[in-house]
């Protein structure tokens, strides 16, 4: 079953002292704390494609190019990989299955568009840099590269639950970077791809850690900075309510630092301060 939205019976005083969870919206009504993912709390990343990934090859894991015939298996893999993810908290099983099928349909649509002119005008997938991981004929992971205005985005990379934390994500990323570098070798400097982009929800610590571990750097954006700022403000308040003065001071200091980042982003004339990967 997908991750349910937490509903925790408590008093208003208990809610005031409740630790704040990063990436979640906290609300209180009808005698209960109610948590839901903050939709705008999305961390954006980029990574130079010329920098390699440190990865050990595996004899048992086959990395190959993604193909249209993979669509059904990929939808099932998407559903199992994201069943407990914050991004789909509150979804029913049917809703998650529909989203998985929609994601695959969107990815493969350009390949199935019979009109070449329309296919060129509406590119959504970067299929020649997208890969699947296969073990004994079963798909256990995938890296799907889509096209944005700024360049290729890793959206998403997903691994079967039983195969997570075994280096499959690194193998897929390695294949993708090599493919993008091969594309660059065939293009002019003006058309070269410098970065691979990605994003994940602020409330997904495993994904955040994976990106940092594999060389991605965060691209600051205002909605995420605001959410972090509010998180530490609320955390400082909750810790004071609990009587933990030292921890409250630490949280408040981080809130003060983030307030400066928020002010800088609010003052920026760069539209990308609101998010570079929105289109």
Structure description:
By secondary structure, the protein is of the alpha+beta class. It has two domains: 87 residues, no CATH class; 178 residues, 3-Layer(aba) Sandwich (Aminopeptidase). It has eight helices and ten strands. The strands form two sheets. Strands 5-6-7-8-9-4-10 form a seven-stranded mixed sheet, with helices on both faces. Strands 1-3-2 form a three-stranded antiparallel sheet, with no helix packed on it. Helix 2 runs antiparallel to helix 3 and helix 7 packs antiparallel against helix 8. It is globular. About 2% of the residues have low confidence.
Defining key terms:
3-stranded antiparallel beta sheet, 8 helices, about 280 residues, alpha+beta, Aminopeptidase
Task: Offer a quick outline of the entry.
By secondary structure, the chain is α+β, with helices and mostly antiparallel strands. The chain has helices at residues 12-16, 71-81, 93-112, 116-121, 168-185, 205-213, 222-242, 245-267, and strands spanning 7-9, 24-29, 32-37, 42-48, 62-65, 131-135, 138-148, 151-159, 195-201, 217-219. The chain folds into 2 domains: 7-40 and 222-274, no CATH class; 42-219, Gcn5-related N-acetyltransferase (GNAT) (Aminopeptidase, 3-Layer(aba) Sandwich), CATH 3.40.630.
